[in-house]
Every structure is written in structure tokens, then in C-alpha cells.
Design a protein that fits this description.
- This protein is an alpha+beta fold.
- About 30% of the residues lie in helices and about 25% in strands.
- The strands form two sheets. The protein has an eight-stranded mixed beta sheet with strand order 4-3-2-6-5-1-11-12. Strands 7-8-9-10 form a four-stranded antiparallel beta sheet.
- It is globular, with a radius of gyration of 18 Å.
- The two termini are about 25 Å apart.
- The relative contact order is 0.20.
- About 5% of the residues have low confidence.
Length: about 325
């Protein structure tokens, strides 16, 4: 058994004809960040350190819906969420409503390690970040031209929408909009296991385009968007409300524990048999180094590697 790592940059209705200018920067970022994770595992960094490092890099990229690339609320502001969890100890930390912290995943780890709590949000999370000396910036740092345009489109269509959404045509619209939003999804996450079977998971997101201020999704909720124990580590991506209802990340571990299934079978069962189609993707690793990356959406930006030399970067099912 050796180490294994998997990461994602969001799942959803990613069209197979996605323009190269949108696809190629994300693929290049996934390759680069995967290699950072691989190098850290080869250097015998702990899985907890590795998933934090990888998610920090994903947060720092403007190409994903987390950190620098976070989408905007209906008020035109950014409210970021993140969660990290250690498999052996089940220690975990989570944050929501973060507006100035460069790397929310590092703040989540500080919550885990420096407080008696698991979850801090909004002003309390921001104050704690300053107390811990984490890097903060002006809120405008996170607002990109692309996400301003996404918010404009969403407002014109009077909808909540998720990442990878193509421009919305509002004229001559024949079908009514889904009041819960569409199936274009986005988040970032990483799971890792070392050669000793130690596991960790981390997830970070900017949420939904045009979401209500104060809305909290699945990412920071232990057992929904993020989970790790001694069997597996899971990071989910998709429509947060659906992932919360089905406690997706915890259920993968539960099916392994109570039904005796392997990771691939357990993850596939939850994604394809439990969650509604078009809502969910996840990356997971097991204590034995198995990797699973199922999704029931059109595609999922994902990458993985194992100690034996396997390496993959993919978006759609056929790759």
C-alpha cells in the first residue's frame, strides 16, 4: 500500500464543447496543483498538511469557485466557506461567511487546532482569523470580472446559479426556471492518504452565484460536504442543499463500514443510487490507497495520483 491523492475543482453541467479558454487554464491548474500534492506526499508530509496545502493552492487560483475565484452573493459580496478533517482523530474545523481571509481552509484548520469548537462563522470567524495572524485582504481582492458578469446574468434571469454556467438567454425563454437553481456546480477539495493509512479531507467554496447573504452550503458541514475517518476521506461538490439532505460524505464511510463495501462501490452507490441526478460529485480515498471520483453530473474537474506512478487529470466520464 502506498499514498494516494485526489482533488476536484467542481462538478456540474460542464459542456463537452467548453471553450478552450475556460477549460485549459483549469486543467493546467489541476496538473500543477496535483504535482504540489504529490511532492508533499513524497516528502512524507502528513495527509492533513497535504490537503490544506492543495486546497490553499486551489483557493489562490481564480479559475475555481473558492478563495480568489469565489462567486458573488445577491449583494455582490463574497462569503466563503471551508472545512478540514483528520481521519484518525476525527478532529475537524469549519468556517462560513468569510470575507477577507485569503485562505479560508487555513482558518478552518486553526479553528480545529486552536479552539474548543468545530465551526465558526461570519464576524466571529473573521475576528479569530485576525487574532491568529492569518493573511487578510480587502474584500475587493476576491471579486473578479468574470464573477461580476455571472452575478449580472443570474440577476437578469432571477435565479440562483452555480459554477460553469454558460451565458443565460432570457429572451424567448420557453421553459420556466428551476426555482432551486440549475445543475451547474462548483467547489474545490482534496483528499489524501499516506503509506501508513492516515487520512484527511479538505473542501472550500464560494457557494452559489446570487445566493442570499448568509446562506450556508454543504462544504463546512461535517458529514455532508466533508468527512474523514479511519476508513476513508471524502470531499463532495455539487448542489449543496441536496448534499446536505443526503449526508453524502458520511454516507460513503457508513456504507463501507456497515455494508462492507469497498470505496469505489460505496462511493458509486451514494452518487448514483442515493443522490438526485445532476446534483453530486465527490473525490475519495480509502485507508488502503483506493481512489474513487464518481459524479452524476455531466462532468467534474478532477485529478488524482498514487505512489505507484498513476496520474490522471480529467473532466468528463469518457476520458
Amino acid at each position: 500500500m502506498g499514498w494516494a491523492i485526489a482533488l476536484h475543482g467542481g462538478a456540474g453541467d460542464i459542456p463537452v464543447n467548453l471553450p478552450a479558454e475556460r477549460r485549459e487554464p483549469r486543467e493546467a491548474a489541476l496538473r500543477r496543483i496535483l504535482q504540489i500534492g504529490v511532492s508533499a506526499l513524497n516528502a512524507r508530509c502528513s495527509p492533513l498538511d497535504v490537503v490544506e496545502l492543495v486546497v490553499c493552492e486551489l483557493e489562490n487560483s481564480p479559475h475555481f469557485n473558492a478563495g480568489k475565484g469565489s462567486v458573488l452573493t445577491t449583494n455582490g459580496t463574497v462569503e466563503m466557506e471551508a472545512c478540514i478533517m483528520d481521519g484518525n482523530s476525527k478532529r475537524c474545523g469549519a468556517v462560513s461567511g468569510v470575507t477577507t481571509v485569503v485562505n479560508p481552509i487555513s482558518l478552518a484548520r486553526q479553528v480545529m487546532e486552536k479552539t474548543p469548537h468545530i465551526y465558526l462563522a461570519f464576524d466571529g470567524a473573521e475576528s479569530f482569523a485576525r487574532e491568529q495572524g492569518l493573511k487578510t485582504v480587502d474584500r475587493s481582492h476576491f471579486i473578479t470580472p468574470e464573477n461580476i458578469e455571472r452575478l449580472k446574468q443570474a440577476k437578469e434571469a432571477n435565479r440562483v446559479q452555480q459554477d460553469y454556467t454558460q451565458p443565460i438567454k432570457t429572451q424567448d425563454q420557453k421553459e420556466p426556471m428551476d426555482p432551486d437553481g440549475d445543475s451547474k456546480l462548483g467547489t474545490v477539495g482534496c483528499v489524501a492518504v499516506d503509506s501508513l493509512g492516515n487520512l484527511a479531507a479538505a473542501t472550500s467554496t464560494g457557494g452559489l452565484v446570487n445566493k442570499m447573504a448568509g446562506r450556508i452550503g454543504d462544504t463546512p458541514i461535517i458529514g455532508a460536504g466533508t468527512y474523514a475517518n479511519k476508513l476513508c476521506a471524502v470531499s463532495a461538490t455539487g448542489r449543496g442543499e441536496a448534499i446536505i439532505r443526503d449526508t453524502v460524505a458520511r454516507d460513503v464511510a457508513a456504507v463501507m463500514e456497515y455494508k462492507g463495501l469497498g470505496l469505489k462501490e460505496a462511493a458509486a452507490y451514494i452518487v448514483h443510487e442515493v443522490t438526485p441526478k445532476g446534483t453530486t460529485g465527490l473525490v475519495a480515498v480509502s485507508a488502503t490507497g483506493e481512489i474513487a471520483m464518481p459524479f452524476n453530473t455531466t462532468g467534474m474537474f478532477r485529478a488524482s495520483a498514487t505512489e505507484d506512478g498513476f496520474m490522471e487529470v480529467a473532466i468528463w466520464e469518457s476520458e
